[in-house]
């Protein structure tokens, strides 16, 4: 069994979150999500960004406040494994907005299915989603 890594190291190692990692880097969040926590991250994979024109992504990256709001909508303070999420109806994201947790044969966050769950890190957990959560 390999040694657990922090959230940032794990996301980089998984290799499917380049836009998310670029946003976190631009916002100076690497230290926070490497050393603080625990956090639960609902991480959109790279193909979630494909339908969005590059110009829109570039614009979002230029608006620091907007980008921070989007990133923080994917993160919850505390470590929530799927076993615990199944008993929760709402979570408060770091941006202060509510995420709705539901079950429809599958575990959903704001209607988006968690595709890969419970990727444990030293300072939290990552759940992989295939769409971007929009606050």
Automatic annotation (TrEMBL):
GO molecular function annotations of the record: cell adhesion molecule binding
SMART domains: FAS1
Classification via Pfam families: Fasciclin
Biological process terms in GO annotation: cell adhesion; extracellular matrix organization
Coiled coil: none
Membrane-spanning ranges: none
InterPro entries: Adhesion/Biosynth-related, FAS1_dom_sf, FAS1_domain
Location of the FAS1 domain: 4-133
Highest taxon of source: Archaea
SUPFAM superfamilies: FAS1 domain (SSF82153)
A single GO cellular-component term on record: extracellular space
Name used for this protein in its record: Fasciclin domain-containing protein
Native source organism of the sequence: Methanococcoides seepicolus
